[in-house]
Amino acid sequence: MPIRRGTVTELQPDTPVRAARAAARGRVARRRLVALGSLLVVFVAIVAVVVVTLRKSAPAGAPPPARATHHGGRRASGPVARVTQVGTLASAISDAGAAPSGGDGAILVGGLDSANTPIDTIQSFDGSTTHSVGTLPGPVGSPGEALLDKVIYLFGGADSSASSSSIVSVTTDGASSTVVGQLPQAMSGAAAASADGTAYIFGGEDTTGDLDSILSFTASAGVTSVGTLPGALSDATAVSYGGDIYVIGGAVGKQAIRSIYRFDPAAKSVTKIAELPVALSAAASASIGKELVVFGGDRTVGARASDAILGIDPASGRVTTLGKLPVALAGAVAVSLPGAALVIGGVEPDGQANSAIFRVQIVAHPARSTRKRGG
Questions:
Q1: Which of the listed CATH numbers 2.40.50.140, 3.30.390.10, 2.30.29.30, 2.120.10.80 matches domain 79-364?
Q2: Structure pTM?
Q3: Half-sphere exposure (CA, 13 Å, Cβ side) for 326?
């Protein structure tokens, strides 16, 4: 018996009329199927003609339409960061001074070890291996640092007992270091960078709190006060580009901030040009090509380290995410190289100092591989 939901129906024997109606319905159904099949064949033929026509009209060697790719819910486009580990420090450090040395190398001076203790070690990285090459006049961590005439200058920083007011010069081979001057007051956590033969020191922290000062330094003129920031800050990062200096992030008290300032050395003026997508203190920065690049940093002072690599367009202030570091880091240092940057040391989320040296390049977004089709 055929079963319907809720009822039972008994089959009836076929009659001649019922049989004739069934046969007629069968013939109609077959005709409909034949007609539908014919329409399908015609449709397929039309589609094939259109595809062949489009292929023939396309210019020779023209690539197929690109597919949109997405990352994190947004269309992926523009440059991205390529990160490779290229070396290891002789001893793990954070909050050191650094400068380029040689074609692919860097010199690392002072810093904090895994116990958060200032050290006096000078390390040299030649692009593949790292060696201890000298010592500073005394241990120092979290100094401001700038490169002038192939000499690294360290401004203040934390020594073995308190903040320092010393200005220390270090040759880029690490063979010689000496105290060459004094800041107006002891400080640590200042940001520094050089432009047009002059080093500039921004903010920092002394025994009374964060500072808003902008100081200049040359070996011949010493230290001069040249202005103030819109607000006091410490643990910012500074990078020079196109004759200007960009002061990025930092902290006010125990609160990380998002500000990006541009300092014009000629006018001695400071302009806020943009904000970071998240507040960051103790980040590292470098210029790579036409991009200012920010690496890691703490989203909360002393905690929640970031692994983000951010790009800042110095013309527009537009901030984009370029990629990620292999590990979240705060207190790393970055050194600009031709077409790349080194990101060195830093503190990992577990509180341990990092010993890795990463090389970061900014490349165009990789295109999808395509296979040439016949015809």
A1: 2.120.10.80
A2: 0.77
A3: 15
Measured in residues, the chain has a length of 375
Cα 40 to Cα 309: distance, rounded to the nearest angstrom? 54
Give the closest residue to 332 by CA, choosing from 307, 313, 311. Answer: 307
Q: 110: buried, middle or exposed (CB in 10 Å: 19+, 13-18, 0-12)?
A: buried
Quote the tokens at residue 277: 């997508």
Write b or e for each residue in 276-298: b if 16 or more Cβ atoms lie within 10 A of its Cβ, otherwise e.
beebbbbbbbbbbeebbbbbbbb
pLDDT tens profile 74-114:
434 678 999 999 999 988 999 999 999 878 899 999 999 98
Distance CA 329, CA 359 (A): 15
Which positions ≥6 away from 156 have C-beta within 8 Å? 143, 144, 163, 164, 165, 166, 167, 183, 186, 187, 188, 190, 204
SS3 readout for the chain? CCEECCEECCCCCCCHHHHHHHHHHHHHHHHHHHHHHHHHHHHHHHHHHHHHHHHHHCCCCCCCCCCCCEECCEECCCEEEEEEEEEECCCCCECCEEEEECCCEEEEECCECCCCCECCEEEEECCCCEEEEEECCCCCECCEEEEECCEEEEECCECCCCEEEEEEEEECCCCCEEEEEEEEEEEECCEEEEECCEEEEECCEECCEEEEEEEEEECCCEEEEEEEEEEEEECCEEEEECCEEEEECCEECCEECCEEEEEECCCCEEEEEEECCCCCECCEEEEECCEEEEECCEEECCEEECCEEEEECCCCCCEEEEEECCCCCECCEEEEECCEEEEECCECCCCCECCEEEEEEEEECCCCCCCCCCC
pLDDT tens digit string along 190-222?
A: 999 999 999 999 999 999 999 999 999 999 999
Q: 214 to each of 113, 183, 200, 229, 322, how far by Cα in Å?
A: 29, 12, 7, 7, 30
